[in-house]
C-alpha cells in the first residue's frame, strides 16, 4: 500500500464503533427480528452489535466480491449455503458489514432480504463516498483504505477452497 492514506481501526476503537452503531439502532427505534452478518467482514461487528442489542437471532450470508487489495470480481456472488428464507419471511432484518466500499455487496444482500423480509436496514462501521447505497447506520465516513484489526496481518495458512 505504500504511503497511501489509511484509516486504522484498533480493537479498542472497534469496540467503541460497534457500541455506537448499536446505540444508533436503538435510538432510531428499529427493533430487528434478525441480525444478518455478511461474512467475513461483518462477523465481528455483527457479534458485537448483537451483544449490545441483547439479540440472539443471528444469521450469516456469505458473499465473495473482493479477492485482494483493490481486486474484485465483476460483481458480488453469493456463496453457499444461503440462509433459509423462512428466517427472513415477514421479519425485520438488520444487515451488518464492516464497510460499504462500492456498496454492491450490501445492495445485493439488501435486495435478497427485501424479497422476503418486511423491512431491512443496513449498518456498517465505514461507508465510502462511492457506495451505491446509503446505509441506515454508519459509524464513520472515509475515502481511505481501512486497516481492520482482524485482517491487517497475513493469514497463517494458505487459503482453502470450497470447490469440492
From TrEMBL:
<dbReference type="GO" id="GO:0016757">
    <property type="term" value="F:glycosyltransferase activity"/>
</dbReference>
<feature type="domain" description="Phosphoribosyltransferase">
    <location>
        <begin position="7"/>
        <end position="151"/>
    </location>
</feature>
<dbReference type="InterPro" id="IPR000836">
    <property type="entry name" value="PRTase_dom"/>
</dbReference>
<protein>
    <submittedName>
        <fullName>Phosphoribosyltransferase</fullName>
    </submittedName>
</protein>
<keyword id="KW-0808">Transferase</keyword>
<dbReference type="Pfam" id="PF00156">
    <property type="entry name" value="Pribosyltran"/>
</dbReference>
<keyword id="KW-0328">Glycosyltransferase</keyword>
<dbReference type="InterPro" id="IPR029057">
    <property type="entry name" value="PRTase-like"/>
</dbReference>
Amino acid at each position: 500500500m505504500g504511503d497511501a492514506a489509511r484509516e486504522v481501526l484498533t480493537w479498542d476503537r472497534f469496540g467503541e464503533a460497534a457500541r455506537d452503531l448499536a446505540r444508533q439502532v436503538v435510538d432510531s427505534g428499529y427493533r430487528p427480528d434478525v441480525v444478518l452478518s455478511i461474512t467475513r467482514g461483518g462477523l465481528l461487528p455483527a457479534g458485537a452489535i448483537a451483544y449490545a442489542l441483547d439479540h440472539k437471532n443471528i444469521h450469516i450470508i456469505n458473499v465473495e466480491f473482493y479477492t485482494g487489495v483493490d481486486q474484485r470480481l465483476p460483481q458480488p456472488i453469493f456463496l453457499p449455503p444461503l440462509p433459509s428464507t423462512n428466517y427472513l419471511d415477514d421479519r425485520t432484518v438488520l444487515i451488518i458489514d464492516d464497510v460499504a466500499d462500492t456498496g454492491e455487496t450490501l445492495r445485493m444482500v439488501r435486495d435478497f432480504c427485501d424479497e422476503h423480509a418486511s423491512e431491512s436496514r443496513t449498518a456498517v462501521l465505514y461507508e465510502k463516498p462511492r457506495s451505491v447505497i446509503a446505509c441506515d447506520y454508519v459509524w464513520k465516513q472515509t475515502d481511505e483504505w481501512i486497516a481492520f484489526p482482524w485482517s491487517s496481518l497475513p493469514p497463517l495458512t494458505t487459503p482453502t477452497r470450497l470447490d469440492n
